[in-house]
Amino acid sequence: MKRVLIIRSTGFQHLDRILGRLRDKYPQSEICLLTHQHGKPLAEKYADIAHVYVYPHTGAFSFLRVPDELKRHGFDVVIVPVGNITGAGFLNVLLFSFRIGADSRLLCNISLDFKPLTRLTLTASLLRSSVYTAIAGGMTAVASVLFLVLWIVSSLSYGKNKD
Description:
This protein is an alpha/beta fold. The protein has helices spanning 12-25, 40-43, 68-72, 91-97, 119-158; strands at 3-7, 30-36, 49-55, 75-81, 102-108, 114-116.
């Protein structure tokens, strides 16, 4: 029997859809869920979830603060739901997933596409994001300088009388 851990990083509506897909993909699996304390009462109502783990810290999931019980438990699959197509904005949860003992990791986007998550794909995504950020920052700096020069030139010429 496969042991599957879902890290609840999106809403329960997304979890509903994921659980439906998991029943087909892993029919004889033990599905566990990691959630914050405020999500525990609702999570425990799901018949498909065998065990609910509570993240003991407030705030976002941090790869520096992984509960020991999750490091020790051997999961076959860790699933990281993300609320968009690419996983952008969920870096903390993606990094967190690599600190949990598991054979494989899957990113599940809002369209319910399950994509393998490896250290290589995570590194490539991080590098791509950094390059885009650097390019956007450079373009913003250039545009700001141009607008500043235009503003100064137009301010200087505005007060002159035409004779």
